[in-house]
Design brief:
Shape: elongated
Largest sheet: none
Number of strands: 0
Helix content: over 70%
Order of helices and strands: HHHHHHHHHH
Radius of gyration: 18 Å
Distance between the termini: 21 Å
Length: about 200
Amino acid sequence: MNKSRLEAFSDGVLAIIITIMVLEIKVPETANWQGVTHLIPTLVSYILSFAVVGVYWNNHHHLLHALKKVSSAMMWTNLNLLFWLSLIPFGTKWMGETHFDRFTVIAYSLLLIVCGISYNLLQNLIAKSLKNENSNLTIIIKKQNSKVLLSTVCNLLSIPTAFINPHISLVFFAISSTIWIVPSKEIEKELSQQE
């Protein structure tokens, strides 16, 4: 299978996820700042989730760019990742509308952990497929496992902190996304040398 179909499908799903999240934000009932302040938790939740989905889209793009050939296992692993990412609008709305209730923050934390594990599965499967073609790229992609570990630790720490203060958990979510904001320069460099 050509990787362009996988890229196009994934891009479409991620675009729909972001669209659903923004459509879930209701217009204030009043034409004043009081109406807007009531929406602040929803807006914060949306901004946080937009960053999460954007980070996944960006890194997913770089990861698939390294791919030469798509296998059935990769298609299913990619679908697994997209499934969990598609639940982010639900978690976003639930967390925002409950004003960051501890239970919804913990549920969101668990969702982010599963998304990270799913991305790691895809990443390692792609690295394994490149083993015979380009050992440098395989090693570089495998180095990304440290980012997965760090972001997972941040998301795990957000669970106990939700019992103390759910707003602290939001900081851990932001740190987790920040770890991934800049895609691997090594992957970009290696891919540009191959072209």
